[in-house]
Protein: 2-aminoethylphosphonate--pyruvate transaminase
Amino acid sequence: MANSDNQYLLLTPGPLTTTQSVREAMLKDWCTWDDDYNVGVVQHIRQQLVALATAHDGYTSVLMQGSGTASVEATLGSVIPAEGKLLVINNGAYGARIAQIARCLNIPHLNWSLGEVAQPDVSELARLLAEDPAITHVAMVHCETTTGMLNPLPAVCETVKAAGKVMILDAMSSFGGIPMDIGDLGIDFLISSANKCIQGVPGFGFVIARRSLLEACRGRARSVSLDLYDQWQCMENNHGKWRFTSPTHTVRAFAQALTELEQEGGIEARFQRYQTNQKTLVAGMEKLGFQCLLAKTLHSPIITSFYSPASPAYEFKAFYDSLKAQGFVIYPGKVSDADCFRIGNIGDVHPGDIQRLLEAIQASMFWTGETATIGEQA
Ligand SMILES: *Cc1c(COP(=O)(O)O)cnc(C)c1O
Structure:
C-alpha cells in the first residue's frame, strides 16, 4: 500500500494521508526564478486548477502562501471594495471564520448565523438580499468541515446570481473531491488549499477567479502579503513567479498530487472513492451503535460527525489513543453544543482502510464492557 511507510493513517480533514510518491516529490530543491519551476511547475498547476474547476472560459487561478485561511483572507480583503458589503452564510466554524475575517478587516458585512446543524433556506436568502441592496458579495462554505455538512450549493448560487451578487465559495474541503463546474454555477471566486482533496501537503492555498472581476481588484487589498491581485499580476506577467518566497517543495508535491488525481480517473473517480469510504463508515458505525450528528441527507463524502457514546465510561482521549495504537488517527468534535468526534475519509484512504478502522473501533469500545480494556490491549 502506498501509505504503508506512514506510522498511522490520518482520518482528519487535512493535513491528510498522502501517497509516498507525493512525499518523494519534495526530495529536490528548486530555484524560484528558473523556468523549470515557474513555467514547468507553477504555470502548469495554475492551468490544471482552472481546468478542474470549469469548462467555461474567463477563469484564472492564483496560488497564495499560507494555510487555507490565508487564501480566504486574501480573497475577502482584495475583492470586496470599500463601498461593498458582504453577506456571510454562517453555519459552522468556517463560516464563522469568514465573518471574523470581515470583522477584522473592517469589511461591512451581515453575519447570517444559522447555528451548526441547519442549512440556509434560499427563500430567506433571497429575502435578505432584496432587503439590503448594499450587499454586493455573498460568501459560503461548501462542505462545512465543522460537522461534515454539504451546503446546497446549486440553489444558493442560483439565488445569489438572480440577485446579481458576487459569489465567493470556501470550497477548501470539497474542491477536487466533489464534482462541480463553477462556471455553470456562477461562482466568481472559489478558494481551496493544497492539503485537502487534491491530496497534497500543507503550505499554500489557491483561488480560482473570474478574470474580469479579479482585474477590477487593483489597489483594493487591505494587506500587502495577502494582496490577491498583486500576486496574480506577478504570476501572469512573470510566467508563474510568486511575489515572495514560494513554498517550492510543497508546490512540487502538489504537482505530483494533481498527476495522481488524473491517474485515479479525475474528480468523479475520487468522489466515488470518498463516497464509498463515507457510506462504509456510517453503515459500520451504526452497526456498532454510534449515531450521526446530522441527518444523512446533509452528509458530505468528506468527513462525518458522530455523537460521543453516552456511557460515563467513555472518554475521547482513551478512545483516540487506542485507535492511534492500531494505526488510525481520528479528529475531535468541533460543534459547540454537542459532544461529538469526527472521522474524515479524504486523503490516500481506501474502503479497505475503513473496514480495518471499523474493526479497530470495535476493539476500542472499552466503555461497553464487552471488549478488552485499553490496558489489556497494550
Ligand atoms: C481546512 C479548511 C479551511 C482552512 O483551514 P486552514 O487551517 O487555514 O488550512 C477553511 N475552510 C474549510 C471549510 C476548511 O475545511
Observations:
- The longest helix spans residues 266-287.
- Residues 372-378 have pLDDT under 50 and may be disordered.
- The pocket of pyridoxal-5'-phosphate is lined by residues 13-14, 67-69, 94, 141, 145, 170, 172-173, 193 (CB under 6 Å).
- The first strand starts at residue 9 and ends at 10.
